[in-house]
Amino acid sequence: MPSRTSEPGDPAAPASAAAPPAAAAAAAAAPLRSERPLRDTARDGLKIVVVGGFGVGKTTLVGSVSEIRPLSTEEMMTRAGIGIDDREGVLTKTTTTVAFDFGRITLDDERVLYLFGAPGQERFWFLWDRLFAGTLGAVVLVDTRRLADSWYAIDRLEHHGLPFVVARNNFDEPTHSLEQVRAALSLDPDVPLLDCDARKRESSRDVLVALVRHLHSLSHALEPTP
Amino acid sequence: MIRRPVDTGDPDRLYTVTGGRTRAYEQAFDLVTLIVRESGPTPGMQSELVRILQLSERPVAVVELASLLDLPVGVVKILLCDLLDMGRITARHPQSSGRGRQLPPPETLKKVLVALQNL
Ligand SMILES: Nc1nc2c(ncn2[C@@H]2O[C@H](COP(=O)(O)OP(=O)(O)O)[C@@H](O)[C@H]2O)c(=O)[nH]1
Ligand SMILES: [Mg+2]
């Protein structure tokens, strides 16, 4: 199994302008209300991001625990808006569109957790700060047949200081132990690593539970002791 | 400002929807800021604003609005700024996240944990 090596440099700006933003349906065609509206008392949105390579099961995981059918949306980035130069008041036609999907889980009367399936490829990470600021933590989904796809995401999460867990989505009978996976990913011993089946609701829930338990212990460690 | 109705999917269309404005307005909203309308649409209102007011009778997240309206998130945020300025909506900002790298307090995370375990 290959191993993750040193941290790569910052992502380069996207190579070229993407096609114009996806054509939207006429406004009149949009549904009148959400398939399953939130409670009137909902007032606190929380975020968890699921990252990983293409086809690793991000959308499947989000969909299996979400109370709504996963929805997708997109964010446009003007090339001028990437990095330093934020040209105010000008919406240039040179845009890059990044699509992501999401689902949600109503936690209680006030809190609702949003899960975002985000592309983990190098060329999308310029989005991270703007789109996913305030995220509680991340789930890195890995497919051991294509472990290298997740190296970059793990490096970036470490760089951003965002807490995460790693979940191996098993498409076939696993051929490596989790310890071998941990070594190949150069994962810190504190980072939880577990198996999952993204198609199963309980399994996907357990991945989220592992992440929040990890966050809970981290926040305890940060609390000043009385 | 007078805006034409939206009927195409090209960048010019988005330029029209937003009156050509970008960025500065976006910071006011998070992806998971919950929007609730204060009053319904009025005749002659821009069609996208009407749609937002229809969709926000109950609380709805910015990202869900974007998906339901089939508009990029940034465009929806700009429209929401207009509605906020007009006093037509209120925004319920995230309480437990959105504070840089800080984690919510352990009690909050405990509640999230228990809720997930009970799913
Ligand atoms: N056999 C198997 N297939 C899976 C599993 N998870 C996802 N898939 C399939 O793999 C494909 C890619 O999954 P998707 O969630 O779209 O990946 P994404 O690109 O990361 O969002 C889909 O056809 C899924 O049905 C799994 O645990 N086992
Ligand atoms: Mg996907």
- Secondary structure class of chain A reads alpha/beta
**Secondary-structure element string of chain B:** HEHEHHEH
Q: What is the makeup of the main sheet of chain A?
A: 7 strands, mixed
Beta-strand level of the residues of chain A, as a percent range?
A: 15-25%
- Total number of helical segments of chain B? 5
- What is the assigned CATH homologous superfamily of chain A? P-loop containing nucleotide triphosphate hydrolases
3D architecture notes:
The complex is a heterodimer of chains A (226) and B (119). Chain A is α/β, with parallel strands linked by helices. Chain A has one domain (3-222): P-loop containing nucleotide triphosphate hydrolases (Rossmann fold, 3-Layer(aba) Sandwich), CATH 3.40.50.300. In chain A, 23% of the residues lie in helices and 24% in strands. Chain A has a seven-stranded mixed sheet, with helices on both faces. In chain A, helix 3 (151-160) links the parallel strand 5 (137-142) and strand 6. Chain A starts with 43 loop residues before the first strand and ends with a helix. Residues 5-28 and 79-93 of chain A have low confidence and may be disordered. Chain B is mainly alpha-helical. Chain B has a single domain (11-117), classed as Arc Repressor Mutant, subunit A. Chain B is 42% helix and 8% strand. Chain B is built from five helices and three strands. Chain B has helices spanning 11-18, 47-55, 62-69, 73-85, 106-117, and strands at 34-37, 60-61, 89-92. A three-stranded antiparallel sheet of chain B has the order 2-1-3. The N and C termini of chain B lie far apart (48 Å). The relative contact order of chain B is 0.17. The model of chain B is unreliable at 1-9 (pLDDT under 50). At the A-B interface, strand 1, strand 2, strand 3, strand 4 and helix 5 of A face helix 1, helix 2, strand 2, helix 3 and helix 4 of B. The structure holds guanosine-5'-diphosphate and magnesium ion. The site of guanosine-5'-diphosphate (GDP) has 15 residues of chain A, from helix 1.
